[in-house]
């Protein structure tokens, strides 16, 4: 009995030792390390981490357990989606209101398990998922299911329900005599906001999302919701737990308050001005312009690519230009869910179309997003970091759409595609 137990333990130790030395050498044509391109570099992976990276000649294939040759291909850090809604699906399939009010939560989660797989297979190994839009804390369970290996998917940073000022969000337009369930959590004032932030954190929020403005003016335009003091309270409570705050902000005043309150990223920023972007630069606030969402919605409303752009898109191009001119840090996040999951590359292509260089866009989707989201263990190809990587055919620094030509996805050292 004792000896068989001993031999079992020995076997376990041996297999652990064998696992501990499992190395994989990847030999692409070039490596984008999160900041710059390096021709003829290779990457060695040991278990779930990057073990070594450098000129191919410096990494001997003989010393590794397995070698994957990837001629003509580019290896990059696993891409980071900065703004997703895994619990939503495209609005041209089902309008947002109907997803929130008519779809069973079980249905939404079932869809989300497919979305996570499509996202990962597209080379996005991390997502910052910014609100369940009426599906309460289902992002927390989704994240746990991925982390436990129940379903394939990216690493998730979750916002849970998100915070809205009473009466400001949606679905709206119903009889004032009925209370319609909302797509986020209503909370106002010092005490109730403190409670709501703490409750969301307690239930699993990695980041707090707040709607600093929303379409609730008389003419349906975006107007500020929370006061500056309320936003400061949210930031203070989140920050004391080590978490950042993300603000949905499209109006000048909503953006101004969110910046001054200490929000780390502003989402959308549609009505930004040179003055507002200068303020963002001054406070180190990053912008996640979500250009693909606006582009998708314009198409759902009948606009066809290749025909003159609607005013809204023309204005968006202008504000993105102003943000770039002001030197604002730009995150990559498309608001995917408005358009199909797995098509995350659409944002990267449009960022180039809106005036960024492919290299700058790839930095945004890797090292910049990692820095802004406080993910020190990923976003770069560097020894010691998580072995999250994507390999594509071609060179996306020359042609951004090559980012779609995914041949290999590695998450935590395991080949997942
Ligand atoms: Zn969003």
UniProtKB/TrEMBL annotation:
InterPro entries: Amidohydro-rel, Metal-dep_hydrolase_composite, Metal_Hydrolase, Metallo-dep_Hydrolase, OTAase-like. Pfam families: Amidohydro_1. Gene3D superfamilies: Metal-dependent hydrolases, Urease, subunit C, domain 1. Keywords: Signal. Residues 74-416 form the Amidohydrolase-related domain. CDD domains: Met_dep_hydrolase_A (cd01299). GO terms for molecular function: hydrolase activity, acting on carbon-nitrogen (but not peptide) bonds. Residues 1-20 form the signal peptide. This is Amidohydrolase family protein.
């Amino acid at each position: 009995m004792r000896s068989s137990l001993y031999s079992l333990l020995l076997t376990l130790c041996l297999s652990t030792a064998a696992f501990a030395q499992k190395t994989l050498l990847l030999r692409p044509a070039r490596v984008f390390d999160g900041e710059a391109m390096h021709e003829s570099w290779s990457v060695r992976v040991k278990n779930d981490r990057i073990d070594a990276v450098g000129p191919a000649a410096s990494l001997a294939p003989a010393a590794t357990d397995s070698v994957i040759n990837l001629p003509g291909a580019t290896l990059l850090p696993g891409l980071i989606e900065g703004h997703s809604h895994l619990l939503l699906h495209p609005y041209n399939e089902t309008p947002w209101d109907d997803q929130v009010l008519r779809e069973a939560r079980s249905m939404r989660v079932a869809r989300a398990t497919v979305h996570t797989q499509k996202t990962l297979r597209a080379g996005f190994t991390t997502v910052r998922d910014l609100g369940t839009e009426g599906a309460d804390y289902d992002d927390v369970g989704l994240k746990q299911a991925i982390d436990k290996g129940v379903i394939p998917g990216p690493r998730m940073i979750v916002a849970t329900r998100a915070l809205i000022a009473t009466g400001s969000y949606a679905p709206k337009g119903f009889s004032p005599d009925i209370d319609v369930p909302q797509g986020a959590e209503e909370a106002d004032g010092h005490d109730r906001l403190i409670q709501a932030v703490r409750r969301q954190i307690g239930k699993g929020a990695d980041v707090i999302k707040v709607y600093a403005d929303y379409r609730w003016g008389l003419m349906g335009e975006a107007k500020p919701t929370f006061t500056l003091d309320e936003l400061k309270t949210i930031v203070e409570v989140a920050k004391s737990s080590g978490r950042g705050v993300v603000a949905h902000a499209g109006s000048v005043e909503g953006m101004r308050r969110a910046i001054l309150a200490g929000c780390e990223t502003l989402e959308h920023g549609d009505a930004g001005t040179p003055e507002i972007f200068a303020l963002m630069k001054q406070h180190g606030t990053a912008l996640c312009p979500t250009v693909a969402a606006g582009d998708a919605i314009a198409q759902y409303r009948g606009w066809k690519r290749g025909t003159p752009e609607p005013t809204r898109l023309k204005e968006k191009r202008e504000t993105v230009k102003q943000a770039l001119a002001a030197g604002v840090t730009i995150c990559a996040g498309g608001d995917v869910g408005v358009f199909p999951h797995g098509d995350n590359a659409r944002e990267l292509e449009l960022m180039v179309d809106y005036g960024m260089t492919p290299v700058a866009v790839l930095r945004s989707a890797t090292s910049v997003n990692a820095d802004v989201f406080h993910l020190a263990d990923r976003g770069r190809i560097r020894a010691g970091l998580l072995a999250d990587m994507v390999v594509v055919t071609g060179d996306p620094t020359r042609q951004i759409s090559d980012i779609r030509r995914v041949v290999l996805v590695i998450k935590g050292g395991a080949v997942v595609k």
